[in-house]
Amino acid sequence: MRRNGTLILCYHRIAEGVEDPFFLCVSPGNFATHLEELTRAREPSTLADISVPSRRPRVVVTFDDGYRDNLTNALPIAESKGVPITVFVTSGILGNHNGLWWDRLGTLLRSRPPHVREIDLPVGSRNVRLPLGSSGIRADLDSVRRHLLPLRVTEIERALDAVSEHWQVGSAPPPDAGTLTSEDLRRLAASGIATIGAHTVDHVRLRDRPAREQQDTIAGSKAELERSIGRVVSHFAYPFGRRDDFDDRSVDAVRSAAFDTACTTIPGTARSWTDPYRLPRRLVMDWGRLRFRVQMQRWKLG
Ligand SMILES: [Zn+2]
């Protein structure tokens, strides 16, 4: 354990042939390949085992956000390869057909009327006007997303509604970017191979919010998910998860809510001395076998 450490991988979606402006998708074929490569080199494990010593280096496979393809595409592959997965679910998506706001933003920007060259975002009592269309949709998405990120999710949704109305275009997320329903979540939890973890109620960037709001969205997601699946939810992942996306108040709130571990997206390998409330993870992209092998070698050294 001390020498080898535990590699914790972060996936979001298992899908192909879909709109993927934020590079969240790994194809089913590549995911199966990743699991084959992982099990050759490492012991597939869960976050519950992270502090228990092991002779072989370990790997934990996690998913963030709560996309429906975690159930329909990822689970059958994980089952066939015998690799446990942990799915961190944004609890507010259960029964919410709006899905995740960045998918709505993607729809909006893709359906921008051709004569429109700017976007007006109502941000609190101000209006923020941003230019669009000069360097492609990817740049537009990044620029708008950056302005929305610090807001409360209700404010983000209101801003997207306002743009949708102003442009007279729909903003529903693509059908293939569907999120888990309560029934889906129960099926995942009942599979025996998936562990359900929490990812806040609303996927807000925590460090921008006061302590009280952080506690509510962190503890609230635990309570909602536990109610839904009828078992204790012991693991948490910080939304976005980089060093500047959460702060010490977030870590305190996770500890007070009685979670056992919390995952970040800060790169690294978990060691026996790593703070269980700041576990590092490696983001995985849609890599084929050779590229994935190279990455595994790099992660081993990093
Ligand atoms: Zn997330």
Provide keyphrases for this structure.
two-stranded parallel ribbon; binds zinc ion; 302 residues; alpha/beta
* C-alpha Rg (nearest Å): 19 Å
Structural class by helix and strand composition: alpha/beta
Poorly predicted ranges (pLDDT <50, ≥5 residues)? none
Shape: globular
Roughly what fraction of the amino acids lie in strands?
A: 15-25%
Please give the share of residues in helix: 25-40%
Number of strands: 12
Intertermini distance: 16 Å
SSE string = EEEHEEHEHEEHHHEHEHEEH
Count up the helices. 9
Mean pLDDT: 94
Major sheet description: 6 strands, parallel
Bound chemical compounds: zinc ion
Your description of this structure?
Helix content is 38%, strand content 17%. The chain is built from nine helices and twelve strands. The chain has helices spanning 28-41, 69-81, 101-110, 137-148, 153-167, 182-190, 211-229, 248-256, 289-301; strands spanning 6-11, 13-14, 25-26, 43-44, 58-65, 85-89, 118-123, 126-131, 194-198, 235-237, 261-263, 282-283. α1 packs parallel to α2 and α7 packs parallel to α8 (248-256). Zinc ion binds next to β5.
How would you summarize the topology of this molecule?
Blueprint: E1 6-11, E2 13-14, E3 25-26, H1 28-41, E4 43-44, E5 58-65, H2 69-81, E6 85-89, H3 101-110, E7 118-123, E8 126-131, H4 137-148, H5 153-167, H6 182-190, E9 194-198, H7 211-229, E10 235-237, H8 248-256, E11 261-263, E12 282-283, H9 289-301
Parallel strand pairs: 1-5, 1-12, 2-3, 4-5, 5-6, 6-9, 10-11
Antiparallel strand pairs: 7-8
Helix pairs in contact: 1-2, 1-9, 3-4, 3-5, 7-8
The structure holds zinc ion.
